[in-house]
Design a protein that fits this description.
heterodimer, A: mainly beta, six-stranded mixed beta sheet, four-stranded antiparallel beta sheet, 12 strands, B: seven-stranded mixed beta sheet, 0% helix
């Protein structure tokens, strides 16, 4: 079975400050990991994903995440927060090509302070 | 491409009524997923289809829920009879058969359901 834990249901950062959203996963086999963003009253949009290869993954809007197997983590970062980054962020995991299910974390709401 | 289309965007109904949610996947996508999002339980997968065939419905909460995909461009999620605890946002997502590791799921805007 696979699971995802997102630490911190709410995170607030000042505009221009570093954004760090935490995600830890549990999986008995090598995972595929995803970050999705949800803006108010919209569906989820893929920010980035890790499948194989380079462990530092770059996504849209300046976000990146690093897969750390030893820490079972896939934290999302952005060097400088922008007001438009205010949204809810979801980490998700699946395990292989044959497994079509994504298991989502409970989400982290990011607030940007002007 | 228009993306995944869901209708209606908002639905308010009374307990006991039948509710039908609709989804049009992205053209060429052969997987379709139905999710439910609530504050208490987060985002849950209800059911998914491959080539119009239901593959896994283990997330469907109970017999009041049913889903169909009569063709590659249309799917419905029906709740009959509806209950207040069914109030949630229901998302549809679609994707292609993966050529490499994991194809991205594309989500629709969701249907916000309120059962009074």
């Amino acid at each position: 079975a696979q699971s995802v834990t997102q630490l911190g249901s709410h995170v607030s950062v000042s505009e221009g400050a570093l954004v760090l959203l935490r995600c830890n996963y549990s999986s008995s086999v090598p995972p595929y990991l995803f970050w999705y963003v949800q803006y108010p009253n919209q569906g989820l949009q893929l920010l980035l994903k890790y499948t194989t290869g380079a462990t530092l993954v770059k996504g849209i809007n300046g976000f990146e995440a690093e897969f750390k197997k030893s820490e079972t983590s896939f934290h999302l970062t952005k060097p400088s927060a922008h007001m438009s980054d205010a949204a809810e962020y979801f980490c998700a995991v699946s395990t292989n090509v044959g497994n079509e299910k994504l298991t989502f974390g409970t989400g982290t709401r990011l607030t940007i302070i002007p | 491409d228009a993306g995944v289309i869901q209708s209606p965007r908002h639905e308010v109904t009374e307990m006991g009524q039948e509710v039908t949610l609709r989804c049009k996947p992205i053209s060429g996508h052969d997987y379709l997923f139905w999710y439910r999002q609530t504050m208490m339980r987060g985002l849950e997968l209800l059911i998914y289809f491959n080539n119009n065939v239901p593959i896994d419905d283990s997330g469907m909460p109970e017999d009041r829920f049913s889903a169909k995909m009569p063709n590659a461009s249309f799917s419905t999620l029906k709740i009959q009879p509806s209950e207040p605890r069914d109030s949630a946002v229901y998302f549809c997502a679609s994707r292609r058969t993966p050529v490499g590791p994991q194809e991205t799921q594309y989500f629709g805007p969701g249907t916000r359901l309120l059962v009074l």
